[in-house]
Amino acid sequence: MSTAAAQGAAGCGKSALMRLGVQKAEADGAAVLWFDGGSLSGWLTVAGERRLFTLDDAVAQLSPDAIGRRPLAACIDDVHLVGSNELDRLLPILEGISAHGLALLFTRASTSDPDRNRLSSVLVRQPRVRVIPVGALGRSATKRLVTDFRSTQTAIASQADAAGLTGSADLAEHVYELCGGNPLLAQALMDECLGPATPSAAPGPWTEPAEGGLFGQVVLTCLERSGREAAETALGLAVLGAEAAEDAVGVLLRRDVSAVRRGLRVLNEVGVVDGLRFRHPVMAPTILGAQPPGRRVELHERAAHSLHAVGAESVVIARHLVAARRTAGSWGISVLRDAAAQAVAADHAQEALQILGLIAHQDPDEHLRTATLVGIAAITARHDPCTAEQSLREALDTSRPVSAGPREAAQLITWALLNAWNEEGDEAGEQLAPPADSRGSTIVSTLAEQWWERTLLLRPRPIAGARQAYPALLPASVAWFGSGHGADDAEDLELVQERLRGSALTEETLPEILNSLRVLAAADRPHIAMSHARELAVDAERRNAPGWHALLLAAMAEFALAQGGFQEAEALARQAAEATRLRTDTLFDIGLRISRILAWTEMGQYQKADRLLALPVPDSLHDSLRSLGYLRARGRFLLATGDPDRALAAFTRIGERAAGWGVDRPALMPWRLELTEALIRVGDLSGARAAVAVQSRDLDRSSRSVRGATLRIQALLADGAERTGLLHAAVEELAGSADRYEAARAMADLGAAHGAAGDAASARRIRRRAWRLAEECHALALCEQIQPGLEPAEGDSELLSEASLDRLTASERRVAHLVGRGESNRDVAARLFLTVSTVEQHLTRIYRKLGISGRQGLEWLFTAVETDGRTDG
Predict the structure, then answer these.
(1) Strand order across the 72-77 sheet
(2) pTM above the 0.70 mark?
(3) 483, 522 contact by CB (below 8 A)
(4) pLDDT by residue (tens digit) across 532-557?
(5) CA distance linking residue 176 with residue 183, whole number of Å
(6) 281-318 tens-digit pLDDT
(7) What's the rounded Cα separation, in Å, for the pair 657 and 636?
(8) Among residues 379, 384, 380, 392, which one has the least CA distance to residue 624?
(9) Which of 181, 193, 384, 746 is the residue whose CA sits 20 to 30 A from 648?
């Protein structure tokens, strides 16, 4: 009997080689026995009839009655998988094979398991044994395999392009690097990544192998066929990842280093690893996923302990604790907290959230648990401000005691206020405040002191424990300043800008940054706030923090509103909504709605604003400072759409809530101005005078935009020269502010005052300037109010020059000049000695040449010419 052994790594083609021998033996009329060392079962083919058998009945299958006088070709696949316990039972089969055998073929893979090499050793010691080495493919052979995978070079080139490679040679190299020349792995890789090989199939795009895919399944098969030592070593590498080393794997698996080395040698031969690293990232999770959950937990927990013992980095240890869902006692909690801080610093927010989530669910210390929940909320805001709100509410859950140190207390309250939660912030402050010391100092008073120093609280310093201790971080343009000089104090504003220039975006700095930006906006520097916010938004986007990006876009929408940029404000608020997973039951969504309602209202898009107002609001809004902004937007809409009574109710409610919450600051939140307008509309002039009087008391502390708006409202309650004087003063104040919309309103009122006084030329000139400013703001409702029926093109700056008149003949110019001064067709005809019909014909040609629709366009045109001092008197 001749004996041959095909020997090599799993997946390199040993079984395929043996099947070729089987086919030849069957063709020669021999009986063929096939036995699989892994399953301990097989089949016997005699005269074309195949019979299955197991190890227990194998001897009976080899009896002379079963085989007859036919020669026998016996094949034993993967003999290395037969252990010592099965060897004694297999020896009678080998004797039967010797009695009838024509040939014995067997395969054995490279394996380091001594216990599973005994049968291989027995067979190899047979006389006249021919050993046939079968190894991995080299690079050139892999290239041929890749080329043969599709029938044409064109197909291979297409596949290479789809994989981002430059040609078939690069594709072959890529395949080789991922499977180490193992033909079984290479075939599975190409089947999964390029699609099964069929002559008619068009090449598909290269897709990387997925966990649980064909490639991973074949990897597991190769490991199973490579013996226990190799499989366990692969598991150790998968658990330890980048920290894998021979001794570390040995400690984890509780095996001798020599066993680990034997396992590594086999794994490298198979092509699963290159040194200590898997050839493809999908291999590690595939190997781990094939393990029972309990086994994975055990190994990760063991890895965390062993890595901690050798002083590994906290982030590395934490990954194993998270994978095991174990905190491992006090040392583990400490490691996890340190790892979370490192992950945040490296902008690995999701990893930090996983770590903190584990602490929050398993930390028995209520004090630290509160701090963890606050941290989760703050980090969640990087990606999802809406979910961050829910996390913060969990931290502020009043159904259980809240406990935190000063640092956590500060972060908890400031994040509550960033979300405009008035009641929750106050309740958190009360819960977090321990008994006062001998000086009456509490966490709340300490926090107020810190904010006074760092965020510019309004002086005099607030009383400890009072609601005024908290900075009002409102979308309703409320900010807090550090000096007693009000919103225009240059020292405060320079300090704010210095802080903004020196502040990097972090979970702790974001509330202060947003408040500082609002300080600038409320101080008539919304354009500066916008510039800082744009830079910060770019940084947030670069750092893959869509939540921060959305929060900054929302703030930018407020700053655009403060400049009268209604179209930009609506677009920014919409972008903020699209940048994150928006939830309509959150205050973040309400803030975006406020900006969009205000923008749509001033742009005259009342149906769109009404649709937003018709949406339900969360119950939390009513106890939130953000409700002040929502009531303001609602009131502005009602006032614009002719419902002053309901608008009055909305503005009155603002006053009640602001007073009750201790945030009524006329210089910073001038709700009384809109209240006064509503009172005037309903005819309550005494109430209007009282409201504007209260607002006027804080003029010296107000920004120029608020001062100008207050003067305009005062003018509504005055007559004659007093009204004109107040409006001139309002226009002058607003000219120095960034609020173009309020400036347009003041100019429009001033033009009307001049018209009422009989000064038609000044009225037209000023109204035209107001119209242009309103049109820049896209405030179409105000444009219509200033000059009904005028189209934007008719007020375009290109028409407002003397060059426009050069298109006209001398006669047309004389007619245009007189009509533009307000004279009727009959008066013009009489002055120029023309018929009325001739004047009308001239006007028809004039309108066509100048691109205007009627007499109003001529009035605007000649007002502009006169403003430049170029009149044709």
Answers:
(1) 49-54, 41-46, 31-36, 72-77, 101-109, 2-8, 129-133
(2) no
(3) no
(4) 999 999 999 999 999 999 999 999 99
(5) 9
(6) 999 999 999 999 999 999 999 999 999 998 999 999 99
(7) 18
(8) 392
(9) 746
